[in-house]
Amino acid sequence: MHERGCIPQQKGKHMKILVTGVKGQLGYDIVNECQKRNIEAIGVDIEEMDITNATQVCDVITQAKVDAVIHCAAWTAVDKAEDEVDMCRRVNRDGTENIARVCEALDLPLMYFSTDYVFNGQGEMPWKEYDFREPLNVYGQTKYEGELIVEKLKKHFIIRISWVFGLNGNNFIKTMLRLGKERGEVSVVNDQIGSPTYTYDLAKLCVDMIQTQEYGTYHASNEGYCSWYDFACEIFKQAHMNVKVTPVDSNAFPAKAKRPSNSRMSKDELDKHGFKRLPTWQDALERYLK
Question: Which residue among 117, 139, 215, 229 is the active-site one?
């Protein structure tokens, strides 16, 4: 397999990147990964740059004099989005448009993170990168609208991820460990299938990718598929906790936003462009728990 995806475009040039949403799991890990590689990363969050404020976005990015923007900031409260449609859209679509406009004007590559929720979640086949998009819920719809904006840029990366976990912020693993301790038993859905994504692993891939000109749409969750039930069982097994896990179907947990039952994603584009796939989700979980 050729590794052209890993040849930096900026040989000999000191690279400088602006990262939005630095307080979140992914933004935090990307800034850390940049620092490890002596890439200057400017991490911003709502206090430094409110992405819904077009003037502020223009000023901050222009003054930062960066070589690329990695856009991690997003509205991710999936159920809350059903009630707060306008606010969710302002962040995920309008905020992304504000950033895209500046990137286009300054000819900067933009990396945008999206989700398997842009698909309708049916069937059992892994979603291919350029499959028809048909979101199931408000969150998915607004991320899809963000994709439509970003893909118009000459220099863009769209990276779809699913079931994200990292050290910073809340996630499924932390919730399971807490409930396991408090109750000794949990019920978890077993009819939604997908792949967890460890932000530490994802950050490495993203920093590799932003240094190339291999633009396009990618799927980048950890390798292997599981249900949330399988995931929970593996969490307790690796954490050496004796917790009873009961599989249930999604109807047992009625939620405002409809969830996809099929979140499997194909990694064809990563392979095609010579990028290494992420390690298995079990391996990622083991390193995370350590």
Answer: 139
